[in-house]
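Sorry to interrupt, but I need a hand with the structure work. Go ahead and set the record down below:
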Amino acid sequence: MIKLFNGLSAFRPVQFTASLFLILFLTANGSLANEKVILALGDSLTAGFGLAEEESFPAQLEKALVGKGQKVRVINGGLSGDTTTGGLSRLDWLLSENPDLIIIELGANDGLRALSPDLTRQNLDQLILRSKATGATVLLTGMKALPNLGRDYVQQFDAIFPALAEKHGVHFYPFFLDGVAADPTLNQQDGIHPTGEGIAIIVDRILPFVEEALTDTGAEG
């Protein structure tokens, strides 16, 4: 009797602990499995130049999506000063995060430096192809060249983004800075980088496009 009692008293706590651990493990795993990972790949507009981390585009986007009941984690893949060439060189390292959705916000610095539209097109083409090859859904955001670069350049540059979105059948948001560009009250003193309030407007306008793209995660590739 004593031996049996001792055996049970020694076994039950261990069995209970193991069962509890298993339940917690499976619960945590299920939660992680349901979480969507979004990679925001971009330049200073994504990185949050001149802003606190919580004011950046990735942080505000994640907050907005979570507030609408989405289980998401948004990775800040922005790098100030980056061009489409730089973004392409960083892509493989960022893909190690296994994103479900990749938002490509690149090209602004190509335009500011008046780089060849052909180079920008080639780089974005490869960014989309390599992103889709992982099975991730892609949301391409458009950018517009400054008028002082000349009519021909502006037309060639601006046409890159919708053409590539159509070619590859990816989600498309026409202009990342829609509602914010050229508004001094929504931009920092340089007139280029949005304030936290400006980013909030960007997030509010792009949010439906991101939500639509999230419904396709796992379907593209």
User: Anything to note?
Assistant: The domain at 35-214 is CATH 3.40.50.1110 (Rossmann fold).
